[in-house]
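User: Xylulose kinase. Structure?
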Amino acid sequence: MRYLIGIDLGTSGTKTVLFDEDGNTLKSHTVEYPMHQPKNGWAEQDPEDWYNASVETLKAVTEGIDASQIAGIGISGQMHSLVLLDEDNEVIRPAILWCDGRTSKECEEITEKIGRERLIEITANPALTGFTASKILWVKNNEPENYARVRHILLAKDYVRFRLTGEYATDVSDASGMQLLDIANRSWSDEVLEKLDINKEYLAKVYESAEVTGYVTAEASRLTGVPEGTPVAGGAGDNAAAAVGTGVVEDGKAFTTIGTSGVVFAHTKEMHIDPKGRVHTFCCAVPGEWHVMGVTLAAGLSLKWFRDNFCKDEIAVAETMGVDPYYIMDKEAERSPIGCNRLLYMPYLMAERTPHLDPNCRGGFVGLSAVHGKSDMIRAVMEGVVYSLRDCCEVLREMGVTSEDMAACGGGGSSPLWRSMLADTFNMKVKTVTSKEGPALGAAILAGVCAGVYPSVQEACRRVVRTKTEQLPDTANNEEYEKYYNIYRELYPALRDIYIDLANI
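Assistant: Predicted structure:
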């Protein structure tokens, strides 16, 4: 029996999972760590916390097994987060995370130096505060003494890889989120680097996600229990790894995640770029192929906001019943009809990315009247999130990226009501998969391919990824949702100028 290990390095903690070669979870261990916010809008972490968590979780899942049967390790990681090392490989400053918003001026600088259209042509995305390039420039502009010490620039998972293997390496999917990669050619862009005056020698070597990037060192073996010489795969950014873990590795396949944010992620063999920059096009974990991803910033966050502020009774009832409060809220929402008695919700609590790219827009209920109760409002929040995700789908369809098979992931994917809304609104079959370990399983599958356990990523997914539930669309429901979705699409254009006026007060 050969084992595969997937490390999922997240923002709140690192989870390491031991799988057999059929994708069954054998052991799992998680270690959490803090996020620091030294100023409003900033978000930082200590890379040492990531490494220590990886060591502890690896040690936990390898205890009591025949470690000689570990075929390989794969790492999935939070994307975009910036790690800077000096000539002695010491961390220069805390890592600046993906959710850090301090770099708006640097985004303007990038756009000015490269040109918005040219930037999208090369990197497939406009300059965004979440991406790594603007964070590098922020350090250069605001901490010149730190930038002068820089000799290596890494991403979160790649710092852990370095500590495990001694190699400076990254994979194409994670590198895509740095805004320094030529997405079409899957290599660093000399043009972008020259115009931003970033030394190419500081960047890690770029690999495909299923390639061997290094081997576990003797020191890392002593600390983790993983045998020296175990291969470590390129791995992938979190969403690209989740795609592998849910089998979204071929044309026509996609997944929707309803977590804190919401994602619609579609696989494509051919590279498609939205010239308006409304969605992200990245290299995916399948060699030589890509994915397109739309993002809504406050998906599950919208329902959590409503729960925390207006559902104290539901929380209390759930506690006495021993169930999740969201289960009670689902049951309440089911009492309201499609359209919530003519009530709409805009999920722009954290502004919006796809399709509006508007930092000023904000959430709201439209159509609220005395007839409405809490069940209508809960359902309206859920429907509004689905409409926002439908917006993402429409941009993909406009680009020629279509899907017939949609997997539902994240906390929202466990809700039968939310899944039925997705199926009926998207008008396509929505499924869930057996494993709940999406990114970790995806990373382990990539490790299996690099170690020769599987012949390809696609073959591995056909063997390992299994469907748990399927929700078929209802034609009558689709027609009803369509009426409300068409009105929903008119709300943002009607309110855009009002959002600007509010932001300027």
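The radius of gyration is 22 Å. DSSP finds 19 helices and 24 strands in the chain.
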